[in-house]
Every structure is written in C-alpha cells, then in structure tokens.
Amino acid sequence: MWVKHHTPKLITFAISRPESYRFKAGQFSRLGFYEGKGFIWRAYSVVSAEYADTLEYFAVLIQDGPMSALFAKMQQGDTILLDKNATGFLLPERFPDGKDLVMLCTGSGIAPFLSILEQPEIRQRFDTVNLIHSVSFPEELIFNDRLAALSEHPLVGEYGHSFRFVPVTTRAANPSGLSGKRIPELLKTTASNRRCIPSSPRNPHGL
C-alpha cells in the first residue's frame, strides 16, 4: 500500500490488486477495517484503469467520521480489507451514443471518471470527451497534472485532441479554469448565453 495526503482532508492510496479481482471502469469497491468488536466497511470508486496492477482510491476525510479516522492513520505498508466483488452501474456501456460525452462531478465524484478516461473504448465512441470537475478551492484540484498527462498515455494519448477538461472552484479564484459558480448555475448561464464553457489553459478548447 502507498498513501498520499494532498491536503489535510484529501488523500489517495493504492493497494495490491488480487489476481482474481475484476472490476469495470466506473465501479466501486467495498473497503474495510477490523475495528474493535467488528468490521467497518465503506464503498469507494476505483480510480485505476481496468488493466492496472494496483487498485487506487480517492477519499475525502470527514471530521468525526469513523472510516476517515482510520484512513487518516494509514501508512505505507498497512493492510486494508477488500470485498471480493466490485459493483456499481456508472458504466460506459450504459452511456447513450452521441457526438459529445460530458461528465460532471464535484469533489470525490471525479474518481470513477478517472478510471473511465483511461479506457480506449470510451474515447473511440465520442468525438469529444469533456470533464467538468467542481471543488471549493484550487488546492482541491489534485488531479490536474494526472489529467494533463493523459495526452502521453500509451493507450489513450492519441485521443488527447478530443479531451476537454474544465476545473471549477466555487469559493476562491481559479487561475487554471472557472471560479465563483456552482455547476448548475454555470450550465444555466452558458445555456442561456448559447456559448461554450471555457476550458483549462492546459487544454484550450470550449465545450
């Protein structure tokens, strides 16, 4: 296991993937600990690609949350329980066909989309794949570099020209994207003005 604390509240971590463990991009795992007199389990979306050798996750630590307290103490080499079956229905094959795919998310909701973005099949189905990720503050946009690196990815890098990423912050200025609006308000404004949402300077396209 490795663990990385990005902010006091945001962590990513990865565990070894059992050979028998199967999941589809967009699904989640049940992770757990043995605590005191019993077990504690929570569901977390898999960040890793389907073909990855490790299982990576993203967690937001909640004050007084029992699982968050255990995550906060995790260190490299620790052990965590993994339920044998992945589940969830946010699957690319359930997305209706069309010209443009737009994925909207806030906070930790970006996790399943990170897995989906590393699947060549989804990049081949749409002319553009667009990700809008909204957080409160710029320091919470912890996946910006990872998303930029997709242009060099051995399996999906060739589709980099069709990927558009829009980071949004709601409580502070955001030099790399949009700020001051929540996603519903942003969509309402852009729809009424009939104009494109500007994207990050890392990927200078509109939606």
UniProtKB/TrEMBL annotation:
GO terms for biological process: cellular response to oxidative stress; heme catabolic process. Its EC number is 1.18.1.2. Pfam families: NAD_binding_1. Residues 1-92 form the FAD-binding FR-type domain. It comes from the Bacteria. It catalyses: 2 reduced [2Fe-2S]-[ferredoxin] + NADP(+) + H(+) = 2 oxidized [2Fe-2S]-[ferredoxin] + NADPH. Keywords: Nucleotide-binding, Oxidoreductase. Gene3D superfamilies: Nucleotide-binding domain of ferredoxin-NADP reductase (FNR) module, Translation factors. GO terms for molecular function: ferredoxin-NADP+ reductase activity; nucleotide binding. InterPro entries: FAD-bd_FR_type, FNR_bac, FNR_nucleotide-bd, FNR_type-1, OxRdtase_FAD/NAD-bd, Riboflavin_synthase-like_b-brl. Belongs to the ferredoxin--NADP reductase type 1 family. This is ferredoxin--NADP(+) reductase. It comes from Neisseria gonorrhoeae. The gene is fpr_1.
